[in-house]
User: What shape does this take?
Amino acid sequence: MSEIVAERPAATATVTRVASGPRPVRRGPLVAKIVLVALAMTTALLPQIDADKMMTSPVSWASNLLASKYIVMAGTPYSVEMIDGIDFLMKEKGLKAGDKVGMIYANSEYGKNGFLGATIMAKARGFELLGEAVDSKAAEATAQMSKYKDAGVKAVLLTQARR
Assistant: This one.
C-alpha cells in the first residue's frame, strides 16, 4: 500500500511504502492512501479509513466498499457490470421475465459480487437465476454447461478471471 503524506508547515510530500501491518506508518498528517490491494485488505482497513477521513482508492471493484464515502472507485463495480450486461440481454437479445438464466461465477470477490448483481436483476426483472460457484482457477465448465442445458436456461452468465 502506498501513502502520500503531507509534511506541515512545509509544502512537501513524502511517499511511504508499507508492506504489511495493522496500521500504516505515519509521518505528519495523513492526506490519502493512494492504492490498497484487494478487497480483504481494504475491508480490514475500512474502520480506520472512515475514522481518519482518508480518501482511498482500492484495487477492487466490489460494490460493498462504496458504503464508505472515502472510497474512490475508478471503474464500475462488479455487480453493476453484471446488472448492465443483463439489462442488455433483456433489451437487445430477448431475455425476459420467466426465463431461466444460469450463472457460473468464480468463488472470489469478483465472482460473488457479479452474482450479487445478477441476483438483484433476477428479483427486479422476474427471471429465475441458477448459480454455481466454481474454483477461481477452473479451466473449463462443461459440467455446469450440461446442467444448465438440461435445465433449459436461455442464457449463461460468467464471472471468471482470465488465465
Notes: The first helix runs from residue 39 to 52. Residues 18 and 46 are 17 Å apart (CA to CA).
